[in-house]
User: Fold this.
Amino acid sequence: MSWKTLDRHTPQFDSEAPPLIGAALKQKILNFVPRYETSLAALLPALHMAQETLGYLSDQALVEIARILDIPPSRVLDTASFYTHYWRKPRGRKVVMVCRSISCEVTGGREVLAECKRLLGIDEHETTPDGEYSLVTEECLAGCDHGPCMLVGEKLHKHVRPEQVKDILADPNNDRIDGPRSSLYDGLKTDGKKTETAE
Ligand code: FES
Assistant:
């Protein structure tokens, strides 16, 4: 393993660029601050809100969040780069997550991941050039007794075989392949009851 030296002195974006975080989003973030003892504690929701609005967390967005919360930019970068659900690069329209935990590992998760990589032509944490798919691995998708599992958007595919990956990925809006789903990912009916699922 070799250390990679990071250049902390050259600005990574145009400091004269117009702000990415507009007044409405800034206020939304500030509304969270009084809930906590310190503004640092509002960092996770602030990052989520910024990502939801901007699509991903660029260097400029991180610096703006640091200013809004009055905390060092390094703390914001540390946090944003630690959690896999924060995106530091543009993410695809469909996010494909393949489980890498033990139950899925022993039931063929590696082969499913390899097939995803082969078909998409990208590695983990990369996005296809057309911006359609991003591929990540994740610790446990809450379907351990139905491995191997992969999640596309919010739809969980269980018992996935490598030869099924092509159809799952090709499903245009991720709603045609009618595989079994985890009740955890099904929405609530308007009457507040859980949707029935076929297991
Ligand atoms: S181990 Fe894969 S879903 Fe839990």
About this structure: The domain at 23-82 is CATH 1.10.10 (Arc Repressor Mutant, subunit A). Residues 99, 101-104, 140-144, 147, 149 surround FE2/S2 (inorganic) cluster (CB under 6 Å).
